[in-house]
Description:
homodimer, alpha+beta, Butyryl-CoA Dehydrogenase, subunit A, domain 2, 8-stranded mixed β-sheet, two-stranded antiparallel sheet, 17 helices, 12% strand, globular
Amino acid sequence: xxxxxxxxxxxxxxxxxxxxxxxxxxxxxxxxxxxxxxxxxxxxxxxxxxxxxxxxxxxxxxxxxxxxxxxxxxxxxxxxxxxxxxxxxxxxxxxxxxxxxxxxxxxxxxxxxxxxxxxxxxxxxxxxxxxxxxxxxxxxxxxxxxxxxxxxxxxxxxxxxxxxxxxxxxxxxxxxxxxxxxxxxxxxxxxxxxxxxxxxxxxxxxxxxxxxxxxxxxxxxxxxxxxxxxxxxxxxxxxxxxxxxxxxxxxxxxxxxxxxxxxxxxxxxxxxxxxxxxxxxxxxxxxxxxxxxxxxxxxxxxxxxxxxxxxxxxxxxxxxxxxxxxxxxxxxxxxxxxxxxxxxxxxxxxxxxxxxxxxxxxxxxxxxxxxxxxxxxxxxxxxxxxxxxxxxxxxxxxxxxxxxxxxxxxxxxxxxxxxxxxxxxxxxxxxxxxxxxxxxxxxxxxxxxxxxxxxxxxxxxxxxxxxxxxxxxxxxxxxxxxxxxxxxxxxxxxxxxxxxxxxxxxxxxxxxxxxxxxxxxxxxxxxxxxxxxxxxxxxxxxxxxxxxxxxxxxxxxxxxxxxxxxxxxxxxxxxxxxxxxxxxxxxxxxx
Amino acid sequence: xxxxxxxxxxxxxxxxxxxxxxxxxxxxxxxxxxxxxxxxxxxxxxxxxxxxxxxxxxxxxxxxxxxxxxxxxxxxxxxxxxxxxxxxxxxxxxxxxxxxxxxxxxxxxxxxxxxxxxxxxxxxxxxxxxxxxxxxxxxxxxxxxxxxxxxxxxxxxxxxxxxxxxxxxxxxxxxxxxxxxxxxxxxxxxxxxxxxxxxxxxxxxxxxxxxxxxxxxxxxxxxxxxxxxxxxxxxxxxxxxxxxxxxxxxxxxxxxxxxxxxxxxxxxxxxxxxxxxxxxxxxxxxxxxxxxxxxxxxxxxxxxxxxxxxxxxxxxxxxxxxxxxxxxxxxxxxxxxxxxxxxxxxxxxxxxxxxxxxxxxxxxxxxxxxxxxxxxxxxxxxxxxxxxxxxxxxxxxxxxxxxxxxxxxxxxxxxxxxxxxxxxxxxxxxxxxxxxxxxxxxxxxxxxxxxxxxxxxxxxxxxxxxxxxxxxxxxxxxxxxxxxxxxxxxxxxxxxxxxxxxxxxxxxxxxxxxxxxxxxxxxxxxxxxxxxxxxxxxxxxxxxxxxxxxxxxxxxxxxxxxxxxxxxxxxxxxxxxxxxxxxxxxxxxxx
Lengths: 591, 591
């Protein structure tokens, strides 16, 4: 199951997300001309295709091995990680201060898609490290930064995020891991963390744990959480890994997928306390954690896009090879000539393209928020905030749907592990769960993001969609005029649903919460159909060689997927009462 | 992960499918009064809950072992199979002639749901045997029947279905397995079959293979296929297993799910030819095979229902236990009090109930076709034919969707194999593929079933749905009147889509085929919303203790799921062109 990074599609999505002018002199990405962007993606593609993708199946089949506190990764993984660090890939998007290359997040997003398509289990290690680096950049002291950030940024010392405990999953108010002041400015940690991705492994000489814990005098709830850094090995005076810290892996999980990556239970302070250093201020760990998670949410969305892309490539290749039934000539025809198979392939292609568009738009907004100033920066930050739950939840939902369709196209072969189609679904299935379940994303969207600046963010987004619709309607091309009508119907439905949810008196009331998930999907359909339609029109005008492909994809999305919009609107506006009745029944013991 | 057979729900679905009067004296099931039906299900439930369900996880974890031609099942499976045969469960629905109990298919359907919910890998063995028994009953000679049927019906000699070959999956025209006349009325088989479920195992003293093969002088294509019976051991003069036949298992598959059941590659005739006997007439094997498969399609649909039921039970139990976030009182609340979780649980419940209703209606129609005569029997046969693709495809599609939601409700725990939620998705994922992929079901629906008696079957079904709508509309109950409007909108959309597809000039043309899958889903939504709504109304009128539950489920289906109907109608009527454009692009090498 080879993987080829679809570089043209990625560059196209980047240009669409940022606007063509952004890459010109004086534009947002004046530091990144189109040729440099393409060259970077081509190098990334080479590394992903040649070094990472071949290890994907090995990692799935062999998994990782746990034995008395040590974790051994699958054959070839250590070597690949060394090449990763040497190639400088880890430092891509980190700020220049401590060795980062400071490339735009938009380019980093495209690379993240590539790594995760090639080998999500491998890519998870740097993905989580990225969030830790971001939190350190914002919140850590200069001393802590100089001691740790250069190695974290290079990837020599990958970082982990230690949030979850058995009694506290999505809800961090109930964390029990204890931090004590040691008197010398450092702290000692005691407690157990679960589901720690790459909590222990043999890929690197050291591992840096970022850990949420509670001080003895901390207020209850989430306002009493602090963030600490606890290395596996404490750096000696020469900066090299020295004394072993009091933190160890006490077990790993047997999981549905991402077998190549260890999911660890970590124990802190079994023999006196794990030496740790405060990141940010005491009891302000939650803000630090959000810095980690916001970055990670977009990255997890990109995992969904990457897996969807790979599933689509794999299914299309199979559909061209496998012959079943008869074609128009009466001879056995490749199944890519069967309309029902084409429907599945187009569903995969269209959803992948829409999710990619949404994720890249989020990344470009984050770049704008960083690089612009004043009201422009604030608007961009709000847009990124609004789009992040969409990027995370829609992309990972369709990641699973697309991987499942990929199995279906393979028929019986899809159920056989050697084919690789099944692994993509098993791997994808975690993405709607971690970094905030997709339900939590939807709730974040309707309760917080919808009310950013009194709703200005969502209304600006609707205006932007209307601009895309107007462009299609004004095209004088019957195909695009028809697409503009479908897109308008979807955006109208989204606007009515937005009106409805904005008007509910209690922004956290059951009516709002019951409609959260269909609202997020409706938003994605409206945003997807406008992005793809306007993109296809631009491609046709530019004489893009892939224009026909983009038109087919956009048209399929409009005529077959976006048509679900009004049904979702009904579920949001009229469906909440039945959810309320169900809640009353089920929570009182009825079944 | 215990399983409790929801006996009240099953009895309710049986009564709704057959009509209350059917169980009264003089009714269709006069031989089966309500008390007997309930007692049978209770016994079946006991066996499934105590003997089968506990082996489900063991089978998944340990799988089956292959070594030089022999296959060993997981610990405890042999003993359970002996109990299965001793309990007489295998003989439930077989006709009385050769030891069958001749119970109605409707009751057998409820039992099939129970077995598969408890342990699908185990239940697969008798499930496939059932189809073989049916084919033998209809097509085999009396001599063959008396030699094999009693042991096949008792389950002592379970049967397999040998259709697939590497080059011929869904398309049997290209079968190459060779049959030669031996001159004594018997035949010799040569060739290889793949994906043979329970092709070899240690559960029983003998295995009976039904094999599709081609005679040397057979016409090309599907008109040249014959069906043969080839036992693993040839019965000796005493009727006991005697000489070993020339058929062996040469390998098993490593699969995504159903690990407890062996999926075998079978080799026939490596040392002179496997002795085989003709079932039916030469070159008429396809008709015999349809007899096997029709039965199996409904049964696979019931696998979907069973897995969906189990996933729902498991998720509901977890949602009542797991606490996250705060409830109205400010204390940690079980997640069953979160509206977004309730939306998922109701989606699971409602789809499971709808799929069950459709499957049981199919089974009841088959009973009517068998037990009535003349036009009534023919109409019932056509109805069963119309509903079978729906029963198979909708139930297995939602089986996967519901199992996936079950994982989501478990959060991170859902991804951990020990929890059991992930196994349900892995097991369910084969059901949309085998016994005719769901795409093939949809194509069968739109190309053949839609035109049964010039469309009379589908229009009778629409009339039946309208009767349900009228009952709700006439209820003088605002809730049901509102439900009748939603149901009418769904049925109207289905009717328009039916008009559209019935009017296409070429019943196998690309327009029809492109709309097949959304049409099947639309049919299921229309049939589901009317079945659930009318059922809930009947439950309320009867003062059923579960009436409130059924109303909540029906209402949720109407307000949140059936609202997708018009979007599907649009995809069917307007979406085909974009599929055609995609076919042209993808089959010419574009990507």
